[in-house]
Structures are given as structure tokens and as C-alpha cells.
Amino acid sequence: MDYFAAVRAFVCAAELQSFSKTAHEMAVKTSTVSRYVSELEKDLGIALFNRSTRGLVLTEGGRVFREHALVALQALDDARHVTSSLNRTPQGLLRVTIPPAFGRRHIVPHLLAFMRRYPDIDLDIVSADETLNMIEAGIDVAIRTGVLPDSSLMAKRVASHRRIACGSPDYFKRNGTPAVPEDLSAHDSLRLSLLPDDKWSFTRIGDARKRTHKRTAPQHVLVELKGRLRSDDSEALLELALAGCGVALLPTWLIGPALREGRLVHVLPEWEARTGRAEPAIWAVYPPKKIVSSKVRAFVDFYVDVIGEPPYWEDGLALMLQA
């Protein structure tokens, strides 16, 4: 038995004092209304109506049940209204997990603007490098960088995630500047220990007329790396690169200021560099649902708009990155 449908039918029949009028009101058959009431009476173990030639009359038990049923149905209607309104107007608590380094630079600085735009959304920010189980942790949306693993989660691309090979001017003065990706095999590479292997992937880009080296290189190159330093923290790799410890493959969202100030030098500008062959990106990830809540949509759309494409952190770097 659909208990709430049966209760609604009973309440309507009590008001209209007729099964046929109730059936017309609810757009169902009269036999369906009669069956609902009979099933309720069987469940409760008491008659709800006395039938007479003038219509339906509530029994004492019917009057008691109607009084409490009206309260329950009103509470259900209120719950439906409040819950559905959450999806019409972005509101409520939004739990977001962000990677610490990226989050500090490009999520947190814009939170005030987001909260001013959506004053009815409360935020709970969880900063974590590890990939949390969103369902178990009660996370509404996660910001992730790089290549996403296969999963049942939904994902929306927020922005590109570009890495470049770079090092300090002092390092290249001491060790020479690589002209083609293969030259990196003779350099100290600062590697991200979270990656499965010690290889960087390069794809040729740009105008061949701008190439200064003599050798003819293939379109795709996979470079075996060497070096004594690795870390699971991109910010640590940045500090090591600035200190002249080697060549690092770092995201533009992290190294923009150092490039502009000349503390880092972009090498192999005619090559697109990746930590693997798959294309990375900045992603918004959320649990699979038929209807994505308006607060999640508001958060994701806000950051897609703020970051832009190409991302704002590459403003002023275009000529430098293509030089």
C-alpha cells in the first residue's frame, strides 16, 4: 500500500464525504479510493467511516486519525516545499574539498565574492591532498587537478591544467639549457612522487620556423628522468626549483609569479609537457544524481566564470610561454 496516497485519499474523502468525489479530485478510480480506505482500516484495525445514504460519516476512530493525519500531511508538504526550494534558490550548507596548494591560491581568494553573490549558502571547506570518499565524507563537490581516475562520480571541466618544464637561471647557467626533450636525460629532474613512473611526455607545438635547434625530433617524446630529489608536494618542488636543484614540471597556476619575476625560466617552449599522455584539467567532481543541487551548480559555474579559459593565472604569460 502507498501509505501516504491512502492517507491523502482518506483525508479528502472525509472532507468531501464521498468516494466518487474524492476519486474525481485525485484523478483516480472510485475503486482505488475505496481500496485505499479499506487498506487503512485493515492496518489500523478500526473502521474509519460509517456509510449512510447521505454519504460518509467519520467514526470516532476516523476523527482521531484525521486530526493526526492532517498534521502529518502538512509536515510532509512543508518538507517537500523547503527541500525543493533549495534547488530553486541556492541555499544551505555546501561542503567542498579542495587540494591545499591550488585551493589556497585560486579557490579561497574568491570565496568572499561567492558568498556575497549567494548569501544563503554556508560553506564548509575541507583542504586535503588525499582523494576523499565523497559519499562517506558528506562532500557536495570536490575540486581536483590533473587526470581523473575512472569512477561513477560526475565531473565538469573548470579550466585547463598546463604544466611547463622550468628551472632557475642559476641552474641552467651551471648545467646548460635543454634544446629538445631528450636533453633532460642529462639533467637533474625534480619529480612528483605521486606519479606512477619517472617519465615526462612532450608533444611538439608552435611554428617550425621558430625552432633554433638543428635536430629533427618526433612529434611525441617520452623522456626517462633521473635525479636525486622527489616530493609529493608541488609547492616543495617549486622551492627546490627556485633553489637551483634541478628542472621541474610545474603547473602554471603555481609558478606564474616566479616566471614573471625571472626567478624561473621556461625551457622547451616549443613542446607541450605532461606527466603522462592523458590530458589533465581542473575539475569539479560531485556525486552522481539525477538532479544536481542548485548550490553545487552555483559553486561550479561561479569558478568556471572566475577562472576563465585560458585561466586568469596565465594572463601576461602568453608571450613568455610561447617565446
Describe the structure.
It is a single chain. By secondary structure, this protein is α/β, with parallel strands linked by helices. The chain folds into 3 domains: 3-88, Arc Repressor Mutant, subunit A (Orthogonal Bundle), CATH 1.10.10; 92-160 and 282-322, Periplasmic binding protein-like II (D-Maltodextrin-Binding Protein, domain 2); 163-274, D-Maltodextrin-Binding Protein, domain 2 (3-Layer(aba) Sandwich). 40% of the residues lie in helices and 23% in strands. It contains 12 helices and 15 strands. Strands 4-3-5-15-6 form a 5-stranded mixed sheet. It has a 5-stranded mixed sheet with strand order 11-8-12-7-13. A hairpin with a 2-residue loop joins strand 1 and strand 2 (55-58). The radius of gyration is 32 Å and the shape is rod-shaped. The protein starts with a helix and ends with a helix. Mean pLDDT is 86; it is low at 207-215. Pfam families: HTH_1 (PF00126), LysR_substrate (PF03466).
Q: What structural category arises from helix and sheet content?
A: alpha/beta
- Average pLDDT, to the nearest integer? 86
Distance separating the two termini: 72 Å
Numbering strands along the chain, what is their spatial order in the largest sheet? 4-3-5-15-6
Rg, rounded, reads: 32 Å
How many β-strand stretches?
A: 15
Fraction of helical residues:
25-40%
Number of domains: 3
Strand content: 15-25%
> What is the overall silhouette?
rod-shaped
Main beta sheet, described?
A: 5 strands, mixed
What is the CATH topology of the largest domain? D-Maltodextrin-Binding Protein, domain 2
* CATH second-level architecture of the largest domain: 3-Layer(aba) Sandwich
Low-confidence stretches are: 207-215
User: How many H/I helical runs?
Assistant: 12
Instruction: Write down the CATH class of the largest domain.
Output: Alpha Beta
Give the H and E element order.
Answer: HHHEEHEHHEHEEEHEEEEHEHEEEHH
InterPro entries: LysR-type_TF_proteobact-type, LysR_HTH_N, LysR_subst-bd, WH-like_DNA-bd_sf, WH_DNA-bd_sf
Pfam family, one: LysR_substrate
Domain HTH lysR-type: 1-59
Keywords: DNA-binding, Transcription, Transcription regulation
